[in-house]
Model the fold of this input.
Amino acid sequence: MITVHHLNNSRSQRILWMLEELEQPYEIKRYERDSKTMLAPDSLRKVHPLGKSPVITDGDLTIAESGVIIDYLAHTYGDKASLPSPGTQQWIDYNYWLHYAEGSLMPFLLMRLIFEKVKTSPMPFFAKPIAKGIADKTGKQFIGPQIKNHLDFIEAHLGKNTWFLGDDISAADFQMSFPLEASVARGIVGPDRPNIRKYVKHYQERAAYQRALEKGGKYDFA
Done:
């Protein structure tokens, strides 16, 4: 039996969605973020030394990192006939989106979140305008343009494709779901990017996604 070590409001929600789509039995072990630091509890370190989520256990295996988990589930429990054949363009695209979500897109979204928090964090009054100035300048000159570049790229791709690999849902969609739904929920993706918004709305309305929400609990990005 697969156990999903599920942290509230985290990337582990997409693992629940994938398992629901696969109709694969699993159980959930819940962990709650610290209300002040928003960090995972130390008890997660008993599962994996970094104490991060998602982590799954499957028999004797402990598997961390969303991309690795999603790829493992796709190859172990998915329809192998629907997986891209190695060496094909679709196989390249599958691996590209699997790595792109966390390797290229998420770092800039995370930087944006951190610098926005800097502007509202408690600090000596004389430091506040300096910190805000640095955060604003970094956001406008570096982070903002980078995010725009990535979202324009995704918007164009989804204008030509129903799912990230074409006409059918794939493991790439589970991996890409978290940064996109977080961007929509936080107002980073607005009405000027209708393809991304349509895509997120489309998969969030799926029965499997709704079942994952019911089992996973409160999730701010849906």
